[in-house]
Amino acid sequence: MKILGINETSHDASVSLIEDGKILFAGHAERYSKKKNDWYINDSLVNDALSYGQPDAIAYYEKPLLKASRLFLKGGAGDWKPRFNIDGLPRKSFGHHYSHAAAGYYTSPFNDAVIVVLDAMGEYNTSTIWVGEGDKIKLKHKQNYPVSFGLFYSAFTKLINLMPNQEEYIMMGMAAYGDWKRYYKEVDEYFPNYHAQKYNFHMGIHDWGMEIAEQDRFDIAAAVQMVYTTRLMEFMRMAKLITNKKNLVFMGGCALNSSANTSLWKLFDMIWIMPNPGDAGSSLGAAAAFYGKHLDWKDPYLGYDLGGEYPVNEIVKGILKDGIVAVATGRAEYGPRALGNRSILADPRDPSIKDKVNLIKQRELFRPFAPVIMEECASKWFDMDFASPYMQYTVKCLKPELVPSVVHADGTSRVQTVNRKDNRGLWRVLNKFYLQTGVPMLLNTSLNIKGQPLLNDENDIRNWEAMYNAKVIR
Ligand SMILES: [Fe+2]
Predict the structure, then answer these.
(1) pTM of the predicted model over 0.90
(2) Which run of H or E residues covers position 360?
């Protein structure tokens, strides 16, 4: 039986198709429409999904009536009901947080775990704790709007003149340049008080009544990151206490905070964060909830298919010659990070490469670039004893002087680890580069035109090549 998962009218629309536990397709609307965080799905995306087969049922993300009541009672933006439908098919809607939980648990390798979902808000829920046992998922704790980890983080994103619900990751990067102690107390006072159910953003967080100088922005970012991490650990300790589980599944937009995620290894034996933990991952979550059992998770390369073998030799040759290459091959990543199939790869040893890549990407100079490293070498180069195949953890670099272009101002890197079994093509690239240079890693950043989503199809490749007068290896 094929189930089509639909996430529409929530930021980051997406479509997924599964068949008896196999994930046939999962793709983001924005990659097809070129509208960042597109709220609506489009014909090209739907046609791409349906090229893998006709569905027997439709699973929708979010309960429309519940969402409508929230919009009516509490306000908020957006539609309450998806537009997409196929007449005659059975259909079912699944709650926002339940879909997040299902996307995480049913793609995880666990049969026994606590599932924590933290985001800005679902229909009403903002923070939930679930228990996964076998194929069953049970709710254990919930917290509703307006008390919210995600809203806390987004409110400060707005305060420092970034785009809320979109540029939280920039604020996270800015934190490394700030002094967290300067604003910690003030920022912590704004943190929603879980026990008193008190929420005080409306007391004026969007207008703090002070002139925010450039250094203040970095100091506030640092304080927000510190408060967030401290409060996250409190919440996770509670989740562990009330469920008594050693494995964690972490989902919701907050699970994209790679700096804070690293601390979670202090609390749990094993952690699974699906590579698309935010709303864009929830079309798969809704489909998985409909199926109600574990999916056969292999890798996040589930979107548009450019075909072809991984171009190992061309990539290594190009990097050794020019320092930087653009790569687009195989299926697009399902998730916000470029993990090698729509990537710019570069030599991490060259200190000037960061500026060169920044020039192509036209982005703020303070923003860091991430390394992709052979998994077997990761603990020699970074302070980590776990794998990070989807670039979800930020750790200290142990030899920053050898790979200056992938180390952030605070000496850390957001690492992607690659092993031979799960990602043979990219692993071979790294291994060849290692044999030539003694360095088992490359710089990896997303391949996109500034301000646009990741490249998707052949047409995007042509546009990119024309704009930058450079070749995309495929
Ligand atoms: Fe969400």
Answers:
(1) yes
(2) helix 353-361
pLDDT score for 359: 82
Q: How far is the CA of 96 from the centre of ligand 1 (A)?
A: 6
Question: Is there a contact between 426 and 372 (Cβ–Cβ < 8 Å)?
Answer: yes
With both helix axes pointing from N to C terminus, report the angle between 96-107 and 282-291 in degrees, rounded to the nearest 10. 80
Neighbours of ion ligand 1 (CB under 5 A): 119, 279
In angstroms, what is the span from residue 122 Cα to ligand 1's centroid?
A: 6
- Structural contact between residues 94 and 286, judged by C-beta atoms closer than 8 angstroms: yes
Residue listed under structure tokens 């994209």: 256
Q: What's the 266 CA to ligand 1 centre distance in angstroms? A: 25
Which residue, among 134, 104, 113, 456, has the nearest Cα to 297 in the 3D structure? 104
Ligand 1 centre and the CA of 282: distance in Å?
Answer: 8
Query: What residues form DSSP beta bridges with 442?
Result: 372
Residue 47 in tokens: 């046609």
Centroid of ligand 1 to alpha carbon of 370 (angstroms): 25
**Kind and range of the H or E run holding 461:** helix 458-468
**How far is the C-alpha of 319 from the C-alpha of 348, rounded, in Å?**
10
Residue 448: alpha-carbon gap to chain centroid: 16
What is the pLDDT, as a whole number, of residue 163?
87
Q: Which residues make Cβ contacts (< 8 Å) with residue 461, sequence separation at least 6? A: 306, 328, 455, 472, 474
Write b or e for each residue in 72-82: b if 16 or more Cβ atoms lie within 10 A of its Cβ, otherwise e. eeeeeeeebeb
The Å distance, Cα 165 to ligand 1 centre, comes to 11
DSSP string, 81-149: S-----TT--EEEE-HHHHHHHHHHHHSS-SEEEEEEE-S-SSSEEEEEEEEETTEEEEEEEEETT--H
Which residue from 352, 343, 248, 237 is spatially nearest to 300, judged by alpha carbons? Answer: 343
Q: Which residue has the tokens 């809607």?
A: 93
419 touches 387 (CB < 8 A): yes
Low-confidence ranges of the chain (pLDDT < 70): 74-78, 193-211
DSSP state of 193: B
Q: What pLDDT is recorded for position 463?
A: 95
CA of 128 to the centre of ligand 1 (A): 11
Of 105, 122, 132, 169, give the one whose Cα is nearest residue 337. Answer: 169
Task: Name the helix (H) or strand (E) containing 302.
Answer: strand 301-305
